[in-house]
Design a protein that fits this description.
Layout (H helix, E strand, L loop, with lengths): L18 E5 L8 E8 L15 H9 L3 H8 L9 E5 L5 E8 L7 H18 L3 E6 L7 H19 L16 E5 L5 H25 L7 H14 L4 E6 L1 H6 L3 H7 L7 E7 L8 E13 L21 H16 L4 E12 L11 E3 L5 E3 L7 H13 L5 E6 L3 H7 L4 E4 L3 H14 L3 E3 L17 E2 L7 H10 L7 E6 L5 E2 L4 E2 L4 H12 L1
Parallel strand pairs: 1-6, 2-4, 2-5, 5-6, 9-10, 9-13, 12-16, 13-17, 14-15
Antiparallel strand pairs: 3-4, 7-8, 8-10, 11-12, 14-17, 18-19
């Protein structure tokens, strides 16, 4: 990324790659820094003599002279989710033994991803180089469940270890370099699943870094350069086409260019295309991401408490999900599916050349829009991006955008809103989310609400009233999608950002990759 304002340049930090290995060995034989055991509340139950009944915990407790049972009782550790205890062992093969709580039961990928994150936290505290992870109870897991569990643990560990310190004067480097996953099987199928987790996790980290980057560094040109770099890295399956403002003008993208008009940083329309190197194409998909690298609100400037103007670098979170998915798919190379990754990137600023409230702009499908609020700009850029996506001859489109505060009000900070007229497409994406562990909730596309979006002088206005704002935004986007194309809009305004930690989450990438693979198989 090239620096602009403020002479800021992100440090080029090479994070050590964590080596994952699947093993079937006796826990007593493992040697390293931390042996972490994932335990449910049931696993922690003890007999009348205060001894563990679970076979793995019983064995470890025997090796430690009853210390594990004793300390867990003293610390009232019962295996509740989010709780953990770590013992330092001066004379044992493992320097530390940790018990990580999984809650009452653990059967979903999200539970095992949190296990990986907890192990990562313990590793940072202990400055560990080597870790082993085992479940106290894995005998009831099917072979398929063991694969997904190992993958989720690996993903959680990688993402938990990652810290974005590129903009700090003294960047920190984590030390963890090897993780053994014990008791979930071995063999090529499991190794492939761990490699998949590694690819998706690196894509999520890439997405996080895009969203974390400030607007003085990640301009539309810099975002386009990042996209082009992905295509160069995986040029056997990815190609890039970056359209200039002049080329967008030729395509009659008046809606997108209207938003971009005020900024000194010119817009860049990004189009990556994934095509497998061989074999027939069964399905054509498009992923469309909102790419506002900064949103001031325009003349309807963001002011007052709760306007969040200080984190409006996150307004390209949709594009980060799309480009992160492109990176992962470039590594995984699924057959039988063509994927278009589309981002209409620009800034929404204020100047004498900018779009004014009351202006009428014309989108590339000929529809006219009366701009009654310049801070409802993301949908204006997406309008032309969706028309462009349909013109690629795709069968299905998923768009992702930090579109409305209304969706955060409705669903809170960790759940994305899903809007689609297609039950089949909804089923596909929700099945993908069950694997990724990301949270989505389907919202209604209430057609009667379109009344509030009608203009007296144009085909539509760009925003309705405060009530049902996320729904009317989705209905607006629907006007720019061909009826023959299955379409879904995902409003990820909440989960794209972790407000507590003040960092990006990389939300959406894992689900998009899973969805593409489901269309590939």
């Amino acid at each position: 990324m090239a620096h602009t304002l403020g002479l800021t340049q992100p440090a080029n930090i090479q994070h050590p790659k964590i080596s994952f290995a699947a093993k079937e060995i006796d826990v007593a034989e493992w040697k390293g820094d931390i042996l972490a055991v994932g335990v449910t509340e049931k696993d922690m139950s003890k007999d009348e003599n205060s001894k563990f009944q679970n076979s793995i915990l019983k064995k470890l407790d025997g090796l430690l002279g009853g210390m594990l049972a004793e300390v867990s009782s003293e610390e009232d550790f019962t295996g509740k989710a989010g709780k953990s205890m770590v013992l330092r062992l001066p004379s044992c093969g493992s320097k530390r033994v940790g018990l990580i709580g999984l809650g009452k039961t653990a059967s979903y990928p999200a539970s095992f991803q949190r296990l990986g994150e907890a192990v990562a936290a313990a590793s940072k505290t202990a400055q560990a180089n080597s870790v082993a992870i085992i479940l106290a109870s894995s005998e009831d897991l099917s072979n398929e469940s063991k694969l997904s569990t190992a993958s989720a643990i690996a993903s959680g560990t990688v993402l938990g270890m990652y810290e974005d310190s590129r903009y700090k004067s003294e960047p920190r480097k984590p030390k963890l370099n090897s993780v053994d996953i014990i008791g979930l099987g071995t063999g090529p199928e499991l190794e492939k699943k761990l490699k998949y987790a590694e690819n998706v996790s690196s894509a999520i980290i890439f997405g996080r870094e895009l969203v974390n980057s400030p607007a003085n560094v990640l301009t539309p040109a810099a975002l386009a350069a990042e996209a082009s770099n992905i295509a160069s890295l995986y040029s056997d399956v990815l190609s890039a086409n970056i359209l200039s403002a002049e080329q967008c003008k030729e395509l009659k993208m008046g809606s997108y260019l209207g938003v971009a008009a005020a900024s000194a940083n010119p817009p860049h329309f990004i189009h990556l295309c994934y095509k497998p190197s061989s074999g027939p194409i069964k399905t054509k998909l498009a992923l469309v991401g909102k790419g506002l690298t900064f949103d001031s609100g325009g003349y309807n400037i963001k002011t007052g408490a709760g306007c969040s103007i200080d984190i409006m670098k996150t307004d390209m979170g949709g594009s980060a999900a799309v480009l992160g998915a492109a990176k992962a798919l470039g590594q995984i190379k699924p057959p039988g599916v063509e994927v278009h990754f589309i981002v209409a990137s620009c800034e929404n600023m204020i100047s004498g050349t900018g779009m004014r409230p009351g202006d009428i702009i014309t989108a590339s499908n000929g529809k006219t829009i009366e701009v009654n609020n310049t801070d409802a700009e993301g949908r204006l850029t997406l309008a032309d991006a969706l028309v462009y996506a349909c013109n690629q001859g795709v069968d299905k489109i998923v768009d992702l955008a930090t579109l409305t505060g209304a969706c955060i009000v409705a669903l809170g900070p960790s759940i994305a809103g899903v809007f689609t007229p297609s039950d089949d497409l909804a089923k596909e994406v929700f099945e993908a989310s069950e694997v990724s562990g990301e949270k989505f909730w389907r919202m209604p596309l209430e057609e009667s609400y379109w009344e509030s979006m009608k203009s007296g002088v144009a085909d539509m206005v760009n925003t309705g009233g405060r009530q049902g704002g996320a729904i009317t935004a989705a209905l607006f986007l629907k006007q720019f999608v061909d009826e023959k194309v299955q379409w879904m809009h995902i409003d990820l305004a909440g989960p794209v950002w972790n407000d507590k930690k003040r960092v990006a989450t990389g939300f959406g990438i894992a689900t998009l990759v899973e969805w593409v693979l489901k269309n590939s198989s």
